[in-house]
């Protein structure tokens, strides 16, 4: 049973309130594909991923990034129930999408960097720690149903 | 993984922009690492790890200096960090997983101070560079 302190919940809520889910999601996914190019293996049908510029401008990347981060929003509404919240998505990523859970950790780290760049000095060490905890737990929940 | 000419020039440009601030950023990266990944504190039982610790500042300066040195000798990071590599293998023996953690915190620190510098391409190059440094420092472990 994960424990969230009042401070952690506050740090999550206050950051999330100011996040543009579409922009942030698009940027996080684009950076994942740019910084760790082997992650492109899951997106053969996305069209042009041949350069950072192509990736950033790719409408499928933007749309999928938005989808992924919107799902993150669900996690934030259900902080005490992440495994249940992500149960179906976990099965999907294992059985249909065949995604190595390491990729969830990579995306989580990238998301933290995107938030850091957006919030600059407001992204304090305590804030980073809380968000790394969150992305780690989301990654864990997404991996939970793997077999 | 190999640093291509673009990576090298991106990394040199970043450290050029950081200039003298690198030391302060080194300390902040350590502070972030200790806060975010408390298990990393186990390597510093002899340190005061409280906020504003002079020891953490001093150590951050050392870490930053090593990164700057590696960036300045980016064609031969192994050569530039050879003594540090020996030190980590023989004496410090920091588990290799921790270099990734510090790398993440260094990237976050740069992002918070210089978001415009950390374009996706520069982010990729800097991440590669930090990986390369970690690899060199653990190369002689066994």
Give structural attributes.
heterodimer; A: 147 residues; mainly alpha; Globin-like; 8 helices; B: 142 residues; 70% helix; globular; heme binding (chain A); Globin-like_sf (chain A)
Summed up:
Chain A is mainly α and 147 residues long. Chain A has helices at residues 6-17, 21-35, 52-57, 59-77, 82-85, 87-96, 102-119, 125-143. Chain B is globular and about 40 Å long.
Characterize the quaternary organization of these chains.
Answer: heterodimer
Helix-strand makeup class of chain A: mainly alpha
**Secondary structure tally: strands of chain A:** 0
In percent, how helical is the residue content of chain B?
55-70%
Assign the CATH class of chain A: Mainly Alpha
Order of helices and strands of chain A: HHHHHHHH
How large is the share of residues in beta strands of chain A? under 5%
CATH homologous superfamily annotation of chain B: Globins
Helices and strands of chain B, in N-to-C order? HHHHHHH
SS-derived structural category of chain B: mainly alpha
Fraction in beta strands of chain B? under 5%
């Amino acid at each position: 049973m994960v424990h969230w302190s009042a401070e952690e919940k506050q740090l999550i809520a206050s950051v999330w309130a100011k996040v543009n889910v579409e922009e942030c999601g698009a940027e996080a996914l684009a950076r994942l594909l740019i910084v760790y190019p082997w992650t492109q293996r899951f997106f053969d049908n996305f069209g042009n991923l041949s350069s950072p510029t192509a990736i950033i401008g790719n409408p499928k990347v933007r749309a999928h990034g938005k989808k992924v981060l919107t799902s993150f929003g669900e996690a934030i509404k259900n902080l005490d129930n992440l495994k249940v919240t992500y149960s179906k998505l976990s099965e999907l990523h294992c059985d249909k999408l065949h995604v190595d859970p390491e990729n969830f950790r990579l995306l989580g780290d990238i998301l933290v960097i995107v938030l850091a760049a957006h919030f600059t000095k407001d992204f304090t060490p305590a804030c980073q720690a809380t968000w790394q905890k969150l992305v780690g737990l989301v990654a864990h929940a997404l991996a939970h149903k793997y077999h | 993984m190999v640093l291509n000419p673009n990576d090298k020039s991106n990394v040199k440009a970043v450290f050029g922009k950081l200039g003298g601030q690198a030391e302060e950023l080194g300390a902040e990266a350590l502070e972030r690492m200790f806060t975010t990944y408390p298990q990393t504190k186990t390597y510093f039982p002899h340190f005061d790890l409280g906020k504003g610790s002079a020891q953490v500042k001093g150590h951050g300066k050392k870490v930053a200096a090593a990164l700057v040195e590696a960036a300045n000798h980016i064609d031969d990071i192994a050569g530039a960090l050879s003594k540090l590599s020996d030190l980590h293998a023989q004496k410090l023996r920091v588990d290799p997983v921790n270099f990734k953690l510090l790398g993440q915190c260094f990237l976050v620190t740069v992002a918070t101070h210089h978001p415009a510098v950390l374009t996706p391409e520069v982010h990729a190059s800097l991440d590669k560079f930090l990986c390369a440094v970690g690899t060199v420092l653990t190369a002689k472990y066994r």
